[in-house]
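Regression report. Comparing outputs from two consecutive submissions.

Submission 1:
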Amino acid sequence: MKFVPVIAAALLLSASPALSHGSRHFAAGEPGNPAKPARTVKISMQEKGKKMLFAPSRVVVNKGEQIRFVLFNDGIENHEFVLATTRENLAHAAAMKQNPRMAHRDPNAISLAPFNGGELLWKFSKSGTFEYGCLIPGHRKAGMYGTVIVE
């Protein structure tokens, strides 16, 4: 019975949003509201020879617009979609080299196994240029990133 409080504390810490993987500060905007309308943008994750890519690799949205990203991994490798600034994604990619099996399921990120799909709902409340990237070691370097331009 001595271990029950330790296990309970570990479960509480792992379930706490403030202590979960990643920050609750999002440079690219904020999580979307499912009760409000959204424009759907479909993005495919692919491999073509030694290249890895998102199709499309560029999305233009209006400030304040809510987007439902419908994502599908058409490749044979695991991939992910992480929406942030380029600087944040590069820093996170470096951290992932230390933990390459890290999986994402945050409001701005999702990991997908081959031939699986998922969705992210995002409100672009800030103007600027942002990035979506696959931060699995080697994938970004192989070309797996895209740009969101918020006008």
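Submission 2:
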Amino acid sequence: MYVVRAGCAWRLMPNDFPSWQTVYGQFRRWTKNGAWNAIHDCLCEQVRVRQGRNSEPTASIIDSQSVRGADTVGRSTRGYDAGKKTNGRKRHIAVDTLGLLLVIMVTPASVQDRVGAKPLLWMLHQRFPKVVLTWADGGYSGTLIVWLKKRFDAVLEIVKRSDDLKGFQVLPHRWIVERTFGWFMKCRRMTADYERLPESSVAIAQIVMIGVMTRRLTQSRN
């Protein structure tokens, strides 16, 4: 949690923590054996129930976020997003209507949203088969809508910004996933991608959300 929030290198952890090799080794073990994923999903169910929702979602919102890749990101796992003018990686995420992370996939930034959405939605429906409706922006329109309906009998609804309005506009449902990206960016480790392996990037994102959810769960019910 300290590394994620402060954004420091593992070697720069304060002396009152265990040695950085011990902490990093535990981080890698929990990444490989799925512990971060298990903790995250358990807390997600608890938060949903606390908020009066069913433990398993029936709707989701998808989007992507391109971030700069540090020099620790190898050439094989990074790319250039011409639209965002970003050289690095892209986070493809699906969240529920509370903004809680359901699934995340990290790819080179050069992977287009529609291309990354298909494996992301596959992961989503394998993990949460009750999801029947997903909202997305115009970048996901086209054949993806037909594919999702045919493969999972689910609806992909495109939420577009009106061309008649100028300036900032809060769009239905899409603001929820943007808020999740905002939670990401509060943690300095997430302002860029510093991880050598994409699976480590996924784990860091899950740790961010573990922090968000534990704070929600420990707030007073009154």
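Expected: both submissions complete independently.
Actual: both completed, but the second showed a warning that disappeared on reload.
Relevant detail on submission 2: The mean pLDDT is 94.
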